[in-house]
Structure formats: C-alpha cells, structure tokens
C-alpha cells in the first residue's frame, strides 16, 4: 500500500470528522433536536457542509485509490492533498458566507475529476498491456 495516498485518505476522513463535530455542536448550540434538520441558518449551513463533504468523499476516495494504484501514488497523493485543502477552504468559506463557497468546491471537484479520469486511463493502459 502506498503511504502518501493513505495519509491523504486519513486527512480527508479527519476533515469529514471535523464537519460532523461542527454540525453536532451547531445542533446543540441552536437547540435543534434530532431528527429535525431545519432551524437556525448557522445550523443549516453546518449540516449542508457535512452532507456535501460526505457526498464528495463517495467520489473522491475511490478515485484517489484508482489513480494511485494504476498511475502514480505520488501524483495521486498530490491531487488528493489539493482536494483536502480545497475542501477545508470550502468549509471555512461556506461557514462565513455561503455565496463564497464556489472556489473551494470547484478546485476540489476538479481534483477529483482528474483523479477519476486518471484512474480510468490507468485501467485502460493495463487492459491494453501498455
């Protein structure tokens, strides 16, 4: 197993853990009793950040590992780190002003798409024997 993509996977999971904790804290702070998912705008933002992060992880994590396995663990790790940093920027931006979340989202999404495309390319290279 490649340590760099594994480390980036841990970072991505820690970012997700952080969003879950922030959401739980906002739920407590604004007295939003489960299973309610509406209330104070600050809570709704924290919930959306957490939900969007898990949605992104579903695509990001397999893409990271496909790219790293079939093309390059180093460049997979670099692109993965770009995703993690972009996701952190997205979280801070969205928390302050939802309208400013775009750049973090777009950069992270592009990194994921490059990882996915590279993973697919790497699989085809193996199939074609190159």
Compute the number of structural domains: 1
CATH superfamily: Membrane associated eicosanoid/glutathione metabolism-like domain
The low-pLDDT segments are none
Overall average residue pLDDT: 97
CATH topology: Four Helix Bundle (Hemerythrin (Met), subunit A)
What's the CATH first level? Mainly Alpha
Please report the total strand number as a whole number: 0
* Helical/strand content category: mainly alpha
Span of the ends, CA to CA: 22 Å
What is the count of helical runs?
Answer: 4
Rg, please? 17 Å
Q: Strands, helices and their partners?
A:
Elements: H1 3-29, H2 41-70, H3 73-96, H4 102-127
Helix pairs in contact: 1-2, 1-3, 2-3, 2-4, 3-4
Q: Care to describe what's here?
A:
The protein is an all-alpha fold. It has a single domain (3-127), classed as Four Helix Bundle (Hemerythrin (Met), subunit A), CATH 1.20.120.550. Helix content is 82%, strand content 0%. The protein contains 4 helices and no strands. It has helices at 3-29, 41-70, 73-96, 102-127. The mean pLDDT is 97.
């Amino acid at each position: 197993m490649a340590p760099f993509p594994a480390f980036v996977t841990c970072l991505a999971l820690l970012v997700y853990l952080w969003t879950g904790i922030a959401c739980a804290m906002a739920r407590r702070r604004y007295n939003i009793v489960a299973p309610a998912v509406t209330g104070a705008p600050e809570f709704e933002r924290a919930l959306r950040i957490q939900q969007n992060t898990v949605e992104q992880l579903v695509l990001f994590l397999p893409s990271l590992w496909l790219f790293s396995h079939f093309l390059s663990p180093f460049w997979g790790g670099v692109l993965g780190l770009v995703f993690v940093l972009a996701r952190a920027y997205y979280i801070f931006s969205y928390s302050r002003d939802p309208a400013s979340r775009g750049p973090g989202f777009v950069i992270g999404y592009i990194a994921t798409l490059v990882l996915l495309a590279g993973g697919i390319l790497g699989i085809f290279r193996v199939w074609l024997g190159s």
